[in-house]
Amino acid sequence: MIEIVSSLSLVITNAFALRLFRGLKKSVH
């Protein structure tokens, strides 16, 4: 169960980072 939580947390963090990166990129251009 710990593996599932860790994987889910990783996916959420990845999605958040991607969205943040896109927002930053859009802000620059």
Structural class: mainly alpha
- Provide the helix percentage: over 70%
| Outline type | rod-shaped
- DSSP, total strands: 0
The end-to-end distance, rounded to whole angstroms, is 42 Å
Radius of gyration: 13 Å
Strand content: under 5%
The count of helical stretches stands at 1
**Series of secondary-structure elements, N-terminal to C-terminal:** H
Largest sheet, in brief, is: none
Regions with pLDDT < 50 over 5+ consecutive residues?
none
Structure write-up:
With 29 residues, the protein is mostly helical. It has one helix spanning 2-28.
Chain-wise SSE layout:
Blueprint (H helix, E strand, L loop, with lengths): L1 H27 L1
TL;DR of this structure?
The protein is an all-alpha fold and 29 residues long. It has one helix spanning 2-28.
